[in-house]
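input
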Amino acid sequence: MKTIALAATLLGLAATQAGAATMTAQLAGTDGSDIGTVTVTDTPSGMAHATVELQGLPEGAHGIHIHETGDCSASDFTSAGGHLAAASDHGVMVDGGPHPGDLPNAHVPADGAVTVEAFLPAFSVEELMMDDDGSAFIVHAGPDDYESQPSGDAGSRLACGVFEGE
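output
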């Protein structure tokens, strides 16, 4: 496990050093509490590298996704729109999926803190996230089932953060 994390860290550093596009979101809960940070960086391989560091969440599995609009102003975070979908269907369990912004569920232990790293194939921070209305990151109340349309039946939105460039 340490080898995988080290390799991912080195890959992230190499991409950042090469001038790759990077976006970071500071997440807040519906009560305004600090929930964590998400960073997405383009890599030389053409896959983006996402690092999600969360705290203060209820124990259990939570769907986590990049959403299409950089706006967390609504009290229930619906202002962030739907998943960053491009022309794809939702979920890895369906033909035509997944959305570019779909990440694996975050499995939060009893202490409420978790780190998730994921590679996003065929994902470009510059092309998909740096458009006129930006992008946001959402943590859902329940797990993503990886197949229900359009969003994996992951429930309400617990936390939101707007991505900003570095």
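quick obs: The domain at 2-165 is CATH 2.60.40.200 (Immunoglobulin-like).
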